[in-house]
Specification:
The protein is built from nine helices and 13 strands. The chain is an alpha/beta fold and about 300 residues long.
């Protein structure tokens, strides 16, 4: 038997209220229903799904594994409904939850410092930011906006360039005193070169010599998934690394790291994009956030 979307939403609301309140009677008081009506609703959900969602005794309700999955889905759907209604009710003031994914080091140093100003401009937007170097699945609902580096894979998503960062080869003075300072790129073959562990990234560093651009394969005994970690390892004297300037700007200024082989730098830069689902139905909160980040990072 098919039920309407309104009835389905009401069932989700009843189920979530029962879990939150801990009993049928308490949930009924909040929702204006009798305990028996609440019980019938839970029975109806379980009958349709063909699984038990909660175990009931006279004193306690315990969710089954299936019940926990259903609860998570119920809360997400109800939250999305609330966001949609709030946004439609007041188009003039963007609102709702905005899920942002940013790289660990760049997010901490460049994105997070901007959030205070953004929150003051848009007080009705709840920014939910995750700092991770893993690629967030935007189509899968893991993020509304992702800040990504480098060449982007073909995708139906919309990408807006919001900035770029130069990349520099660096090492600690202590390491160079111990191992020597490379004078030409090929000297790196005699050094411990610390690299990123992204499988999409080849262990090659770009150089320009006598007007010719080329890539040099380098080797080292440690890889990491973010520039901050590589910078810390370089400061500790473990080896030489090549990272985004923002990751090591303070350490270069303080002398904890020094740039290497700058005469051979081919203008090594990495583009930064905001990636999101575009189109006519793009929520206002996504649009204003992307515009804000682009204007501030550029």
């Amino acid at each position: 038997m098919q039920i309407g979307s309104t009835d389905r939403a009401r069932e989700l609301e009843v189920f979530a209220a029962v879990v939150q309140r801990g009993s049928f009677s308490a949930a009924g008081r909040v929702l204006g229903l009798t305990p028996s009506a609440v019980s019938r609703t839970i029975d109806r959900i379980e009958a349709r799904l063909g699984v038990r969602l909660m175990l009931r005794t006279t004193r306690v309700l315990t969710l089954t594994a299936e019940g926990r999955v259903y609860l998570g889905a119920a809360r997400r759907i109800l939250a999305d409904l609330d966001d949609a209604e709030r946004e439609i009710a007041d188009q003039g003031a963007p609102r709702g939850r905005l899920r942002v994914s940013a790289a660990l080091a760049h997010g901490r140093q460049c994105i997070v410092p901007l959030l205070g100003e953004f929150a003051a401009l848009y007080p009705h937007i709840l920014v939910d930011i995750s700092l991770t170097d893993a690629i967030a699945d935007i189509h899968g609902g893991q993020a509304d906006v992702a800040i990504r580096f480098g060449v982007l894979a073909d995708s139906p998503l919309t990408a807006l360039r919001v900035g770029q960062t130069g990349r520099t080869i660096v090492a600690a003075p202590e390491y160079l005193a111990r191992r020597g300072t490379p004078q030409v790129p090929e000297d790196l073959h005699n050094h411990n070169c610390l690299n990123f562990n992204f499988r999409r990234t080849e262990p090659v560093w770009p150089f320009r010599k006598e007007g010719r651009d080329y890539a040099l394969t380098v080797h080292g005994n440690i890889e990491a998934n973010n520039g901050e970690t590589l910078g810390q390892l370089a400061i500790a004297g473990v080896g030489i690394t090549r990272v985004g300037n923002f990751s090591v700007a303070e350490d270069l200024a303080a002398g904890r790291l020094v740039p290497l082989l700058e005469a051979f730098n081919p203008g090594d830069v990495e583009q930064i994009h905001a990636v999101f689902v575009g189109g006519a139905n793009m929520p206002a909160r996504v649009r204003v956030f992307v515009d804000f980040i682009a204007s501030n990072l550029r």
